Each structure stands twice: as C-alpha cells, then as structure tokens.
Amino acid sequence: MRSRPVSAGRPRALLFDWDNTLVDSWPVIHDALQQTLTAMGHPPWTLEESKARVRLSLRDSFPVLFGTRWEEARQIYLDAFLATHLERLAALPGAVELLEHLQAAGFYLGVVSNKTGPVLRREAERLGWSRYFGRLVGATDAAADKPDPAPIFMALEGSGIVAGPEVWYIGDTAVDMECALNAGCRPVLVGPAKPVDAEFASHQPHLVFDDCSALFLHFRAL
User: Fold this and answer.
1) Could you write out the DSSP letters of every residue in 70-123?
2) Residue 43, domain CATH
3) Residues 112 and 216 placed together within one structural domain of the fold
4) pTM of whole model > 0.85?
C-alpha cells in the first residue's frame, strides 16, 4: 500500500467506482469511442489519450466533444459498446477475492459509476456480482453524475449510513477523489495512477493502493 499520512480507521461502508477499479473496461471503451469519433468526423484518439481523457459521464462529456450532435454521438457510442461489452467484460485481478472478503466481514458495499446505470447493472449481473452490493448507481440514475456527490448519497440510501469519513469511495481517477471529497467521504485511490500526477493537484486521495489485491491485504489485516 502507498498510503497518505491520514489515520483512516475502519470504515462502515465502501463504495466503488466500476470501470478500471473493479473491471477491465479500457479495450471496449476505447474501441467504442474510436467508432464514435470517426463517425462524427473527429480524429481518433490513441489508447493513452482515451485513458487520460475519459472521466465524465456521456451526458456531461459528449456535449463538450460533439456540441449539438452529442445525442447522436451518444447513440453511436452505446451501440458500439453494447455490441461487445458483455463478451469482453473481465474482472481485475484480486477483485473477486476483495469483494468476497468485504461482504463476509459485514461491510456495506455499493457502486458509484459514470457508466450508464442499466449497462452497469447488466455487467454486474453478468459477473454474478449484484449480490455483493446494496446499491449500484450509474450515470443518469441520480440528479447529477460524478463528481457531483448525488450518486454517492443515492448509493447509501437504505443502508442507515450517512456520508462521511467512515464511508470510503474507492476509484482510479481524480474525478473519483473529487466526488468523494464533495460528499464528505474518504477518497481512496486504487491502480497505477500516482497522487503526484497533475490531475490530483486539487483532489488528493487519503489512501492509495496499487490494486485490488493490495486493498484486500489491508482489510484482511484489520
């Protein structure tokens, strides 16, 4: 674990980002985006550009990219994505073991993603993961999408747990850290990104883990 100098304690709830936090989604996201950019007359992006630029939900990012034609672009993207996403869906290493352990330990678990809500829940069903989570909240489910705190509040509804430092929001980007901080929750970074990267300048994580396996080892030691 690469930890920040913060006393984290034991959380009451853990909320997770989905794409590239628990599942490997970059190949299908990038391919669908390439088809969309090409169809809309935009130059294609490299995979590295996609990884650096894809952060917000479609309803927040596509109007900026495609202007008044954003809904047309959204449909092209969704058609391309939905054609292959279930067949190419893969859990990240250590994710299953982590979720199994956390559920057995009695933590409340949820998902807050900028992936469209029905698509998110379809993927969770495909993996057999719906049973782990109290709520799976995706883009357009709440009044606003990440980094707005609304989806975090929705993910906690019915749990009896209020957003605060005892709720960890775990993700792989600065948008996830911003969302956690906006909700008053503890931001936890998982994956290859580093807190010194420019995108984290205003939204620093409190804890940093290399991957799901490192997070699992942390909780197993509690």
Assistant:
1) HHHHHHHHHHHHHTTHHHH-EEPTTHHHHHHHHHHTT-EEEEEEEEEHHHHHHH
2) 1.10.150
3) yes
4) yes
